[in-house]
Automatic annotation (TrEMBL):
Species in which this protein is naturally found: Vibrio stylophorae
Name used for this protein in its record: Methylglyoxal synthase
Keyword field: Lyase
Domain MGS-like: 5-152
Enzyme class name: lyase
Catalytic residues (UniProt): 71
EC number per UniProt: 4.2.3.3
Length: 152
């Protein structure tokens, strides 16, 4: 597929996701980066969003719980260009019932070329990047061109 670009604004749309065994780790990480995160639009799957908002007072748009379709909602937002980056503290040692949804979310993140951090170290690296707080151009699939070629 051909590629095009889109601009991620300086105020990023950041998704925050965590499996049950990782929610406390994500909460601790969010508290450590709260001042920086306040400058961005935050989204989260249901339980994670509720817990983070309650503990930090951050304004977080909460979707439904991951197993109830929140991972798929988040994937749809990524496809629409409404999520710029994702912090996803997932648990690689415990299977989750909605594992196919998790894999689909990670796959769609790769398709649409958004940065994804899957643990504390990668999240720290991502948040320390100068790209986080400035307009940034990324390559994405040229879906409009793809559709136009199919209808000719």
């Amino acid at each position: 597929m051909e590629r095009t670009t889109r601009i991620m604004a300086a105020r990023k749309n950041i998704a925050l996701v965590a499996h049950d065994h990782c929610k406390q780790d994500l909460l601790r990480w969010v508290k450590e980066h709260q001042a920086q995160l306040e400058a961005h639009n935050l989204y989260a799957t249901g339980t994670t969003g509720f817990q983070l908002s309650q503990a930090t007072g951050l304004d977080i748009t909460s979707l439904v719980s991951g197993p109830m379709g929140g991972d798929q909602q988040l994937g749809a937002l990524i496809c629409e260009g409404k999520i710029d980056m994702m912090i996803f503290f997932w648990d690689p040692l415990n299977a989750v019932p909605h594992d196919p949804d998790v894999k689909a979310l990670l796959r769609i993140s790769a398709v649409w070329n958004i940065p994804v951090a899957t643990n504390r170290a990668s999240a720290n690296f991502m948040m320390s990047s100068p790209f986080v707080d400035q307009d940034t151009v990324i390559e994405i699939p040229d879906y409009d061109r793809y559709l136009a070629e199919r209808t000719q």
